[in-house]
Design brief:
about 550 residues; alpha/beta; TIM Barrel; 3 domains; eight-stranded parallel barrel; globular; binds 3-methyl-2-oxobutanoic acid; binds zinc ion
Length: about 550
Amino acid sequence: MSAEIVSSQTTTSVDRDAFADYARPPSEEGYVRIFDTTLRDGEQAPGCSMNLEEKIQVADTLESLGVDIIEAGFPIASNGDFEAVSEIAKRVKTSQVAGLARATEKDINRAWEALRHAAAPRIHTFISTSPLHMKYKLQMEPDAVFQRIVDSVTMARNLCEDVEWSPEDGTRTEHDFLCRCVEGAIKAGASTINIPDTVGYTVPDEFYALIDMLMNRVPNIDQAVISTHCHNDLGLAVANSLAAVRAGARQVECTINGIGERAGNAAMEEIVMALRTRPDAMPYTTRIETTRITPASRLLSTITSFSVQPNKAIVGANAFAHESGIHQDGMLKNAQTYEIMTPESVGLHRSSLVMGKHSGRHAFKAKLEELGITLNDNQLNDAFVRFKDLADHKKEIFDEDIIALVEDAALRHNDVIKFVSMHVNCGSHGPNVADIALDVEGERKEVSAEGQGPVDATFAAIREIVPHEASLQLYQVHAVTGGTDAQAEVTVRLEEDGKSVNGQGADYDTLVASARAYINALNKLLVKREKTAPEAMSA
Ligand code: KIV
Ligand code: ZN
């Protein structure tokens, strides 16, 4: 295949003036570029898939955060991925847009096709270099892998001025071979060398030493930016990334909320806030607008129905909560006693507007702004209707209630299957029966079904209206606030053909929330089916 990688196309002549000077990463020594891969590695995580509209919303958010490079997807993976990369490439003006490609002519051409209209495009190409991956996954000899690296980077470089190269499973690659590959990739034109800890295996000292070794042994290393890409299998992704920065890496690959394959990727908010909070220990900067972190985190969990664990650093619900008396006392005397960064610095505002059934649209919109939630007009309408309904049933409306209902309502207006109404008969005697009405592509459908319990009956009724083979992998209920009138937030995970989707629903009635969650998951499954995947892939 090496000889096949010959390109007749030359570097694009598209006018790149749109990528103004203020959009380029500063060249100063301590500046760390933030390369966000939420839309590529993050989206590969089970249950995290997004449709085009959602990906565009995330890309806009990443751009407004000040991300240097947005990895928008893996264009050859599916038509949906291609379209998303292409749309994002056309609209983003102040971040670079990258697309992933394996070391093949087809992948690289497809990536370039999707990226060519970007103000500042980047092709990110990779191949495995560890003995294990070369032998079992690629079934290639090291010399052939080396030749493929040179050929693929050369081809990518002939199309695009900015090429990043990654040795997959880099942390388990033999050092001599890694140095040879890195040197070859730089010679062929790569200006960023990304070292992935693909399986989350390394530890901070070892990763520091690896980056240090590359800095000292690769003769042309000064012609490239070294990057890190750490997975979190041992919970060390952020620590490993920061160790690499100390050793000289000046790009960090990460995702919002740390989503990604298996245990996820390094969390962007943690990297950025660690650098911002401890400049004394780590004198490095990014240009991330940290006050946009909380809204970005919320948007992503809304879109993916992937909640953030309450004790998650920076964006968890408890990250700035002080429960114990001693801590509260200290906080009242001086917030710095127990707060190393302010909630405001990550865009979390202490509540000022109290909401209830008399609150109007204006107040509702102001509250959303206070919570860092931005909705378009359709989403706002849907959310406001749900808010009024909730306020009729619940005396006190807390911020958590609003976040839950917005998450529930905001992203449903494109759904093909919509919840209309339901009634369930249940209890310790007699059959459990659910009567349910759904709107399927504009047509109202009503059925009645029995089940082992009310949830089983509800899901059976939905299955009768929308027959499918997907299996239920997870059913989880969580009370949004305290009290017996609390809203229930339900998560449902469905799996079909090895692909899983998460659905979420919230309501003051647990069964209605369950039905909404199941329907949400079904809608996502339909989107997933629509995406044709010409080639199954993993990266
Ligand atoms: O984890 C990994 O190795 C990757 C590469 C494609 C960079 O995601
Ligand atoms: Zn990865």
